[in-house]
Amino acid sequence: MKYNIKEIALLAGVSKSTASRVISGKGYASPEVRQRVNEIVEQLQYRPNAVARAMVAKRTNSIGVIIFREKQPIVSHPLYGKLIDSILMAAQQRGYSVFLKTDQEMSIQSTDYMLEQRVDGLILISRLQKNVIEHVKKFNVPYLMVNGSTDDPEVVHLVSKDEIGGARAAAYLHSLGHRKFFILAGPQEHRSHNLRLQGFREELRRLNVEESHIHVVPAMESDFDQGYTLMAKHLSTFIGEAYSVLFTTNDMLALGAMKVMLQNAIRIPEQAAVMGFDDIDFAAAYSPSLTTVKVDTTRMGRDAVVLLDRLISRNQDMSKLYEYASEIIIRQST
Amino acid sequence: MKYNIKEIALLAGVSKSTASRVISGKGYASPEVRQRVNEIVEQLQYRPNAVARAMVAKRTNSIGVIIFREKQPIVSHPLYGKLIDSILMAAQQRGYSVFLKTDQEMSIQSTDYMLEQRVDGLILISRLQKNVIEHVKKFNVPYLMVNGSTDDPEVVHLVSKDEIGGARAAAYLHSLGHRKFFILAGPQEHRSHNLRLQGFREELRRLNVEESHIHVVPAMESDFDQGYTLMAKHLSTFIGEAYSVLFTTNDMLALGAMKVMLQNAIRIPEQAAVMGFDDIDFAAAYSPSLTTVKVDTTRMGRDAVVLLDRLISRNQDMSKLYEYASEIIIRQST
DNA sequence: CATTTATGTGGGATCGTTCCCATGAATTCA
DNA sequence: TGAATTCATGGGAACGATCCCACATAAATG
Fold it and tell me: Of A65, A197, A309, B37, which residue is least crowded by CB atoms under 10 Å?
């Protein structure tokens, strides 16, 4: 049922070398021989064994994507899902297969089986501990990071300009006339949450908004439930002190908070505006739809593959840091 | 920088056979030798080459997941994302790596590179053409289908009991007192959409609901935008003829439609109730949250891996059809 | 003390490709 | 016509592991 190239060669009446030349498409072979071999291949539905090929080529034509989740599943995460989607698409276009792996604790082991030379390169997504980078480095497998937090100048990494995004959000809200800001800030050990908040506050300072008119509530998680819970808890403060706008460091928090507000008959945006960050699909779908800062995840994913591909071919020195601008998407919530 | 077992053996002062025995953990080796080899392995951070291993073992310890999308990216699809998540989790637990591939047209080629013996088995998700199954069959790679539409009794497939789910939804809505039903029905060539609609109508018939009190609007797509567009178009009918409830064959359609209703100040559920199908995460998050029929995707994904694993070990005849019950989740929209 | 049995170890074939190199046949050129 | 060149093919090593089998050596048995 399963043939190897030797059998194909035998049936075509040629040597396996010749058969190999025809099948792989490199090297001499006369038209007649070519035809004969191809016929047999077609007839028997022969496919060269990728493993054996990889063995001699020292190239598997596959890449590994490792993504670190905190608690929840990650593929179904509205943001990371998009990222994976675009990575998948770009990789397939370039002839790469994709190994996908998620891991809860970003332990050294989680990368281990990717380092058994079964992938040509690695894309590491989200934050990870320093020792893991060290570990991966040791194996000199080409790799890069997307939205991770590293200050290692040797590591190629793709990040969004979260600080600028935060600043823009602040400027935009201020321009609408808002002067009292309520903020739900996701885990500060996360690069994005941290920078988004920083950028936002910085800009408010620049705009001379009084410090006492800025209320920051720290969030331990960054999901819908957390947004809901925190807003429910602080609703009285929010209303009592008449904050006119809520800014959150990601969309999920915003949507969760918005749900509380809607349940309490707060009219959005008339009574209070809401602005998130990420532009996940549901930001547009929610009612009212959510004004947010869009991160072009799709482009980041595509670029990650392109860069990794280049890294794999080792044919050029490249810069290490790639930053992605973010864009304000105005919707009904402001 | 990269060592092979021969070099490890040399440094440990043993033959590669002995080294192999220590490293793979099968076969004799004296404690001293064992220790010596392990030391070298640790010191040089040696990892056996997975490709070479796969070559002789004829086992790659990886499985392929192929998922067919119509237009949009699929991983970020709220339902399929979940499925993939659980497959990933289960596969990792069992020591499998996962190749992920999405394909627009479910062409024969899309499975091709999975058939080069680089995976031990295949999980095919969503519908696919008949000839593709034939093709995969030819290669006798173990495989199974999740939520695909096939009547081939030889193919192992996992499906949700959509018909029963539809019936239950109808019964539930009827029990609430609804007598005029407006339905948004997704593409009928899809197994799930088709069966959900059938089950729903069947039950209404059983409950003696007049045919003229059932209005079915066919949808070409099954996403948010489609739900929005169709509801916007048929809103006057909906209101004019005083339908008291909207049922859709999936949540995305429901959410899209709900947005139109909210924008037109229709009070949900007082004025009109809405019920979807799937129980995607955002069904709970929406405001008002959506009553729906839950499909236990997580369990399906896990089971798919378990079954495929069994199929790979070829050690038992197993039944071919696995059906998953669905459960009504009551929320604010009804 | 000879023989069997247990205990370790190493040699070499094997998996299915690719690719280098040698070799033979056909063609071109002086 | 003989040498150089091109064209076409095949032999065999290599990739890096596993694993069968043979072979030592030591321990146990009669």
Answer: A309
